[in-house]
Write a structure and sequence with these properties.
The chain is built from 2 helices and 10 strands; from the N terminus they run βββββββαβββα. The chain is mainly β and 178 residues long.
């Protein structure tokens, strides 16, 4: 895969084609001096367990990885905290209301959107919802269902950060659950 900075040819400030690599994470315009730093986009992932200690999983309705398993989540909007973002994404994809979002860890990812590699920092939250019994697959989710922890195979999940995150999450659970 090409370095992400190779995707940007023109200076976003003045439009010059003299937009050159400055260092491993930035480009500088030789004409106006503007420096662009390529930083990851923020995204969230929700880990929701029901009373039977089953994890809510969804099937991706869209590319990338359409048809594979996933967890509710998505990009954080501007002026939104991670907790607000994960709550909104859960509501948009499941109809569930998050009552608590506890940050667990983060992992880097590359999310291909319309053929464009978007570097993300995926923040994983353990979420408690108001009602685990009532949910609907909406937005980016084609299907939703609870899966027993011992039946989860991270390799069935289409996004690499979600696979790694599931492995970390499952290892962190008490042995009576996994």
């Amino acid at each position: 895969m090409k370095h992400p900075l190779a995707q940007f040819t023109y200076c976003p400030e003045c439009g010059s084609s003299h937009f050159e690599v400055h260092n491993e994470k930035s480009k500088r315009c030789a004409d106006c001096g503007f420096v662009y730093y390529f930083n990851p986009s923020s995204a969230t992932v929700a880990l929701i367990l029901n009373e039977q200690q089953q994890l809510l999983v969804c099937r991706r309705a869209k590319n990338p990885a359409k048809g594979t398993l996933d967890l509710p989540g998505g990009f954080i909007d501007m002026n939104e905290t991670g907790e607000e973002g994960v709550s909104r994404e859960v509501r948009e994809e499941t109809g569930m209301e998050v009552t608590e979002a506890k940050y667990l860890f983060s992992l880097p990812n590359i999310y291909i959107y319309s053929g464009f590699p978007v570097h993300t920092l995926d923040m994983f939250f353990r979420c408690t919802v108001k009602d685990c019994m009532h949910f609907n697959a909406m937005d980016d989710a084609a299907d939703l269902f609870f899966l027993p922890i011992d039946q989860i195979n991270p390799q069935d999940f289409g996004l690499s950060s979600v696979r790694k995150g599931l492995e970390l999450f499952i290892r962190s659970l008490p042995h009576t659950i996994s």
